[in-house]
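Convert to structure. Protein one:
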Amino acid sequence: MEEKRILVCEDEDAIRDFVVIHLRRSGYDVYDVDSGEKAIAAWKEGRRFDVALLDIMMPGVDGTQVCRFLRDESSTIGIIMLSAKSQEMDKVNCLMMGADDYVTKPFSPSELIARVDAIFRRVSVSRSASEQESELIISGPFRVDLKSRRISKDGEALDITQVEYHVLEYFIRHRGVAIDRRTLLNKIWGESYYGDDKIVDVNVRRIRMKIEEDPSNPRYIKTVWGFGYKWDEE
């Protein structure tokens, strides 16, 4: 059976215990800590995780700092933030830092597990990519290597997360086609995704910052007003 390693970082004991119990029931190997300092220390000590579940608001080193640290350390780890409804700006900031998703408190066990499972599936696909047959997709200056699951522009590898890879790959595969936000949400995050379309816009904005010479006047990912986006390779 495939090992499913997850880090849970939450300072409230009741919430952490609730999360840990349901993750273990779903087959996850859980390592839980009650502070951001302990989460970072665990990684530095050599522990590795497929997914990290991080509370945004914690004393000392908070979830946003742990998110930034983990994303700098790994482009493949899945990161999900736990947030209160009042922390709307913090959610966006975490997504811009490299988080893959967020879950708003209070949440049900089924919602939590569905979100974690969706992230883990993407991580698992990336892990097994080396076993797949090599294939390239080329669009203008971009090369998508389906074996290594990396994308380069003008010969230089892009520093992107796995979610960003999936979004870019989908765009490039469907170049010239207008794609609505809901389709992107279903294809990348899954049809059972509980969140809203906002996560699509934040990821597109983040990708533009990495691939466009002028993100405010994009050349490749064009906005189709009132609908979604379109990849234009010119």
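Protein two, convert as well:
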Amino acid sequence: MKKILVCEDESVIRDFVVINLTRAGYDVVEADCGETALAKYDEHNGDFDVAILDVMMPGMDGFSVCKELRAKNGGLGIIMLTARTQEMDKVTGLMLGADDYVTKPFSPSELVARVDALYRRVSLAKANIESNFKEEIKSGDFVLNLRNRALMKNGKMIELTQVEFQIMEYFFSNPGAALDRTDILNHVWGEAYVGEEKIVDVNIRRLRMKVEDEPSNPKYIVTVWGLGYKWDA
């Protein structure tokens, strides 16, 4: 069963999300605050594929929950719920390890489509691990392990989220090639993705903080002005 954790303090919105995800075939566990969400995550031994977290909640906010969950599980799919006016919240959530965000108000079809897309990425990762998929891709000082979806730099492990791994896999498969933002978006998030293209830029910022010696002066993930990015190792 596809299992999802929904953390939203407003009962009307939470019920709306739970009903629609249940209809879409998900096993939903709900929480009305951040503290309860973390408790239920532990209670279920982390057996979740995706978590949906509201940003603005009393007590422990969605950012804090996202950070805690990401520390517990690098493979968990995380979607943040943000208000239309909370532009910085979108960036902050992604920088803390979220994979995507959905802006309120949202339609049932949009929410389910975003969850389905993220679930597919998470389930693919699990399938590769369970099948003992051992292939590696080497690029300069880096080794991308396709089985455990991790990146090594000079023998040191760099933990990646699902989205970060897919971007790096795309880079490694196209070394030195200038990749258009739209191509990256379609490859990682899917052609049916209805979000904003800037999600690519935020994830690149996060990746540079992990792989670059000097993130402000990148030499591996290079900006191709007017187009996108390229991997140069």
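The radius of gyration is 17 Å. Residues 2-127 form a domain with the Rossmann fold fold (CATH 3.40.50.2300).
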